[in-house]
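haha ok so turns out i had the wrong file open the whole time. this is the CORRECT one, sorry everyone. sequence first:
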Amino acid sequence: MLEDKNIKEAKILIVDDQPANVTLIEKMLDIEGYLNVIATTDPTQVKSIYLEQNSDLILLDLNMPVMDGYQVLEGIREVDPDYPPIIVLTAQSDRESRIKALDLGARDFLAKPFDRVELMTRIRNMLEVRIMTKAMKNQNKILDGMVKERTKELKDTRLEVIRRLGRAAEYRDDMTGFHIIRMSRYSQLLALAAGMQEEDAELLLNASPMHDIGKIGIPDSVLMKPGKFEPEEWKIMQSHVDIGVEILSGSDSVLMNMAAEVAQNHHEKWDGSGYPRALAGENIPLTGRIVAVADVFDALTSERPYKKAWSIEDTIEYLKEQSGKHFQPRLVELFIGIFPKILKVRNEYLKKVKN
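then structure:
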């Protein structure tokens, strides 16, 4: 049961063109202890009063000049589909009037002259329902906010775990871990530019940090070698793809499946000279083609223990030179087209490294 205080503080709006009727109802409500009663004899003002007051209950006459009660009902429904309980108080007690008023949103109908006790009881019942409904809506909003906050927390945690897994694989030659953050954000930006849906581009953002997770199984003597690989060493290095796919495969997760797809295909080349399957052109999944551009750009512009960083200008020239060879030409064009966004991401994480 609601506290009497909550009901008596409810906002009630009286609408009747006859001042005597308004005064009578105001006195009744005052005797019952209602504290927030507003009245108007001008039906054209109801909409603005209702919006300003956020009324919990409207007591409405039907037969009024300029604007009748039916028009008032229609006006309130226009500004608030969730309109409050409305009790129609009118001398028009015929069946047609009652049905029309109820059809337009009135919740109750009481013919004049009305019984005071009956009116006060109906008002109280209406307000109890109104207040409980509002409380439930507020509670649902709070719960919805909590669910959204928890969902965001889980998503952020998932991304953090993924990045840390990716960093574990990269740790020996990228101790900051920012390579996987930069290249994953480059991948998301390029995916959006290529027309990928936002949901899928975000999935790629989360999946791409694991692109080289197989490096965790490559010996330092190979992974950290500054010079050219010997044929046997190159074979060992290439095996990180199979190791990564093995780690990421076999899951029911859409995210893990995309991560496995990226790990398997981001070393393929547009002209078919890549590995491990020598796929060419659009036979390479789009995710692999996108990550190839993002990964190479960041790898070349990053300093590693075994190499110096390339300049931005030289790296862009390399992407252009490899367009149609290593990379899909359209993706190179799109990457250069969104380069201000790419550079913003790069500069953001360069600052973090310096700090």
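The longest strand covers residues 11-15.
again sry for the mixup
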